[in-house]
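User: What would this chain look like folded?
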Amino acid sequence: MLSSKRRYDIDSLTDVALRVFARKGYDGASMDDVATEAGITKASIYHHARGKEALLARGLGRALDALEAILTERDATAGGAAERVRYVVRRVAETTTRHLAEVTVLFRVRGNSETERNALERRRRFDRKVAELVAAAQKDGALRDDLDPGLVTRLTFGMSNSVVEWYRAGGSIDESSLTKAILALIFDGLSRA
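Assistant: Here's the prediction, encoded as C-alpha cells.
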C-alpha cells in the first residue's frame, strides 16, 4: 500500500519552511509549524536539515543568489549605465514576484543571528553595486545628478521590495503590469510629460 504522505527533499522542505516563515515571521515560526504545514513529523525534518536556521539559510541563499545573478546577466553588464540601471530594476521586480516567499523572508530579516547578518551584508553589497551603477548613469548625464546614488537605490528598492507585503500571484495585478508600473514610477514619475 502506498503512503499518503508526501515525500520531501531539502528543496521542497525549504519551500514549505519559507511559506511558513513568510506568513508567521521567522522568529514566530517553529519547527512544529513547518512540520504541520508539510504534513510530516518534526523528526522527519531533521532527517533533511539541522534545524530552523539551516532552512532559513537555504531560503535566504536562494533569494540572494537570484538577486546577485541579475548583476551578471548580459544586459546588466553591457550598454549604457542608464539602460543597465533600468534593466536591473526590472529584473529585481520580476525576481521579487517569482521568488516571493524567499524575498519576503529576506526583506524581513533584522540581523538577529549570524545567518541573518550574513544575508544583510550580501544584500548591502548588492545595493552598493547598484548604487555604483546609478552613479555611473548620473555621471553620463543620463539620470539626474542632484540625488545621492545610495538614496536613489534605497528608495527604488524600497518601493519594489514593498510588493512582498501585498502582491499575490494570480491576483488582480499580474507580474508584467506590476513591473511596468514600478519602472514607470521610478523612471517617469507621476507627472504628465
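The chain has two domains: 10-52, 53-188. If you want, I can go into more detail on any region.
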